[in-house]
Design a protein that fits this description.
By secondary structure, the chain is of the alpha+beta class. 56% of the residues lie in helices and 14% in strands. The protein has a four-stranded antiparallel β-sheet, with helices on both faces.
Length: 316
């Protein structure tokens, strides 16, 4: 009988506690469930916002964002603005019936080159998202957002021929083919070996044959031959030589950080302005990108203007 009475008292106490919780605001009991933003009939909670920040920042930055410096406040506002835009886009996707299929999600994952069976990868995903399933749901969400943007904005962007030609005529100096050289190189470990090799070349021995015999760098294909290179694509100490020596003549021995080098330039292509047809595709892509960005900003602005958005900035 005593046991029965105690059980009843415990049961009543639990029931009263539950009723008491219902009478309180859930946000007071679970602070992380506080609503940071209301967007029409959807919400962004403090917890969702904090989890997003943690996923975006590197592990070393996961605590530094919590202080209220001006830099961090600006960072939080930017991230929140992006989250609001994503919610608006997903709402638009729901209205238009736009979804990401399982095949599209799997294609996205495959394109990332991720090994879903790799233990380190699974551990990272679980740490950042809670589970692999939640990570895949996030991928699906991102694909849906991109698909909606493509269908509602970017697929409607067009560039006319007259726009392309007008841009080319006004910006011809932007479209240039840089000076290029095609060269060969021999690397020797010592100055003495380099001097002996240079004497052989100056006596008329074939550069390719000598390079195959003596060059210390076996990674360069076809006996020391480079492909075509423009300035800025090779080490500066190489470029200072190959862009300044005559064609088909071995250079002097040049000491570089790689060893003792001998160069020969086989071909040179002078810098020139690109013709319209050579520049056309580059211009189309540039104008599409600019028009697409403008169209997207206008579209997002309309979505925001037509939405009811309430932000509790004190919770940032």
């Amino acid at each position: 009988m005593v046991y029965f009475r105690i059980s009843v008292i415990i049961l009543l106490s639990v029931t009263i506690a539950i009723i008491g919780c219902k009478s309180q605001n859930l946000e007071d009991i679970l602070p992380h469930k506080k609503v940071l933003v209301r967007i029409n009939d959807t919400e962004i909670t403090v917890e969702e916002f904090q989890n997003t920040i943690k996923r975006l920042l590197s592990d070393s930055d996961t605590t530094s964002w919590q202080d209220n410096s001006m830099e961090n406040i600006e960072l939080k506002k930017n991230i929140l603005s992006q989250m609001i835009e994503e919610k608006l886009i997903l709402d638009e996707a729901r209205k238009k019936g736009i979804t990401a299929s399982d095949a599209e999600v799997q294609k996205e994952i495959y394109g990332m080159g991720k090994d879903l069976q790799n233990n380190d990868f699974i551990k990272t995903v679980t740490t950042r998202y809670g589970s692999q399933k939640k990570w895949e749901e996030e991928i699906q969400r991102k694909v849906s957002i991109r698909k909606t943007m493509d269908m509602m904005v970017f697929s409607k962007v067009a560039v006319q021929e007259n726009e392309v030609s007008a841009y080319y005529n006004e910006h011809k100096n932007e479209f240039k083919a840089l000076e290029k050289v095609k060269a060969r190189m021999i690397i020797l470990p010592t100055e003495d070996e380099a001097d002996k090799t240079l004497k052989r070349l100056r006596r008329g021995e074939d550069f390719t044959k000598v390079a195959k015999e003596v060059s210390a760098d076996k990674n360069i294909s076809d006996a020391g031959e480079f492909n075509y290179y423009s300035r800025g694509e090779l080490p500066r100490e190489f470029e200072d030589v190959i862009f300044n020596i005559p064609l088909s003549r071995a250079s002097d021995v040049v000491k570089t950080s790689y060893g003792y080098n001998i160069f020969r330039v086989d071909e040179k292509t002078a810098a020139r302005n690109l013709a319209f047809q050579e520049s056309k595709n580059l211009i189309i892509e540039k104008l599409k990108r600019e028009k697409g960005e403008k169209a997207f900003n206008e579209w997002i602005k309309r979505l925001k203007e037509n939405a009811k958005i309430e932000i509790r900035e004190e919770l940032l």
